[in-house]
Amino acid sequence: MELKSSDVNLWKEALSLYDSRIESMSKPNLASLDQFYCNELPSLIHQRNPNPHITTSELSKLMQWKLTRGKWRPRLLDYVSSLDEETVKSASQKAFKSLPEVSKAVSELTVLKGVGPATASAVLAAYAPDVAPFMSDEAMVAALGNSKEYTLKQYLVFVDKLQAKAKELSADGDVFTPSDVERALWSSAIGAKITASSNTDAKSSKKKRKR
Q: Superkingdom, according to UniProt (predicted)?
């Protein structure tokens, strides 16, 4: 599915298939990590009023989710797992207070070792899905045509596009956040990979039968 698609039903379908696509990846712990990231973490962060923040162990689990759903880079997990608790608390508090100024919020988080714009976007999306979507490879390709540039500048372009799409899809009474748009794009991309893979398997089995 392309970002320019304006068929709300297609977006709803892709979003509704998100959980089953997570399951279909058959990656150890991904389903439970996704449950934590999408459902538990946002509540934990918001419960910490008046100064919402994320802890080191939560950031470490978020990183596990990000790397399991995307590309595995073990050094990043080592970096964030060894971060000082107060440093993580302070950086995330400042970041959340900076919103909706996404640029400043990302900059507050990227002072942490191992946290680049993509990981920062995941932290912000857990706290404010209506403002900041996660910078996944699949959604970056759909929105910008590539996923090679993990810079703040690229992320801000990505945010603008997904915020605009969320607003467009919500025009007729449906409610879409930028994070919903990201998940729908991710789900659609994974679905296309599954279809392509099954088509390849079907072709190779046909060839075998012909022999």
A: Eukaryota
How far is residue 88's CA from residue 180's CA, in Å, rounded to a whole number?
26
Low-confidence ranges of the chain (pLDDT < 50): none
Q: How far apart are CA 189 and CA 21, in angstroms?
A: 10
Q: Whole-model pTM?
A: 0.91
Measuring CA to CA, how many Å separate 125 from each of 38, 170, 182, 202? Answer: 9, 18, 10, 39
Distance CA 211, CA 208 (A): 5
pLDDT digits (tens, 9 = 90+) for 193-203: 888 877 665 55
Q: Apex CA 70: angle with CA 73 and CA 175, to 5°?
A: 140
Q: How far apart are CA 137 and CA 41, in angstroms?
A: 22
